[in-house]
Design goal:
By secondary structure, the protein is of the alpha+beta class. The chain has five helices and seven strands. The chain has two domains: 121 residues, no CATH class; 57 residues, no CATH class. The protein is globular and about 55 Å long.
């Protein structure tokens, strides 16, 4: 065994330590992703997805090479380790991995434009004492145009520290928004 000291990078995640706390960032990963896709000089977007966008399995023409879409979405899934703000939008675009279309690829490009606006965004865990556990969840009632299933998500905080998050499409069609939020809470 050999002690290599405090680690700074782990699986593409930069760990920056200071007296104030620890930051987990994937800035280099984001910049490499933008460079590989040719989006390094693109115009930044202020949100990860257009709030009025409703994509379905019939939106646009089929892509001739779905592997590029699948690779990009896979890289975005890995990026959600330090970007919880991408959890919902990545769960939406990952639903179309089997037969991606041009509208789905446009949504992925919009996510990349959002990443251009905040490549250094990450998680910060302060060294100060934290108290209390808080959980937040939400669901969009029948948000999927494909099968009317809801998508729910949750965030769990210990004090000010985000410790767990997830966005998931519900497996069944629910009868009300209250039931969708109750199922998300469960």
């Amino acid at each position: 065994m050999k002690d290599l000291g405090q680690f700074r990078y782990f699986l593409g995640i930069k760990v920056a330590r200071s007296k104030q706390g620890i930051s987990l960032l994937q800035r280099k990963y984001v910049l490499d992703l933008l460079r590989d896709t040719g989006m390094l000089g693109c115009k930044p977007a202020s949100t990860p997805m257009d709030p009025n966008l409703k994509i379905s399995t019939e939106s646009g023409d089929l892509l001739s090479d779905p592997s590029q879409y699948q690779c990009l979405v896979g890289r975005l899934i890995y990026l959600t380790n330090t970007h919880p703000d991408l959890a919902f939008v990545v769960s939406v675009v990952s639903q179309f991995m089997h037969a991606p279309r041009t509208a789905h690829m446009d949504a992925v490009y919009h996510i990349l434009r959002y990443l251009k606006s905040c490549p250094g965004l990450g998680l910060f865990y302060s060294s100060s004492k934290q108290v209390g556990l808080s959980c937040f969840n939400d669901a969009d009632y029948a948000g999927s145009k494909i099968n009317r299933c809801s998508t729910s998500g949750f965030y769990t905080f210990y004090g000010d520290h985000l410790i767990s998050w997830k966005s998931k499409k519900q497996p069944v069609v629910l009868r009300s928004s209250v039931e969708a939020k109750y199922r998300a809470m469960a």
